[in-house]
Write a structure and sequence with these properties.
227 residues, alpha/beta, Glutaredoxin, seven-stranded mixed sheet, 7 strands, cytoplasm
Amino acid sequence: MFDLSDQLITMGLWSISIGAFGAAVAGILLANTDFFLSQTEKATLDYLEETELKTIGEEPRLFKAKDLWERDGAVIMAVRRPGCFLCREEASGLSTLKPQLDQLGVPLYAIVKENIGNEVEHFQPYFNGKVFLDAKGQFYGPQKRKMMLLGLVRLGVWQNFRRAWKGGFEGNLEGEGLILGGMFVIGSGKQGILLEHREKEFGDKANLTAVLDAARKISKQTAQNDN
């Protein structure tokens, strides 16, 4: 009778262990789908153009975001965190488009949501364009999305880590880095938002070909307006 009780207890413990393991595996698999990701609300031109931005430098000044694209359109990176090595990798990749963007007459800008110490200064070597401060984080909305501990169990995040590490990019942990960033290609005047990429997980970059294709539409629109 005693042996039977021991066997039942052992079987029960094994069942609990197997069940817990199965639940953990199922949780990890589910975490690698888009089910738990923050929902994205697309920005509108009206929402973005009245955003108050600030220049970064010795004599900062305030201006409306629409000044960035009013005449020639713009490609704008909303940086999750300047010290993040994944963001630096993305900025470096985006900067490879600068010669083509210059030919199209389309400027390249970056937006940060905070300016801590020398973080923007240390980010600048990776980004071939001007950087501005969006203190209210408008470019990260209308619905700000965060990635918390979920990022640690997503295979895509670890693949992005590995890619950036292999590329030789380094960073730090200074500043807020949970609110996800994105990328915008905005046409001149009231042409509108031609491309909007929202980072769905750490290191989720915009497709550079899509960015350049959208920028070419700005060039055509500007040329038509000038004729």
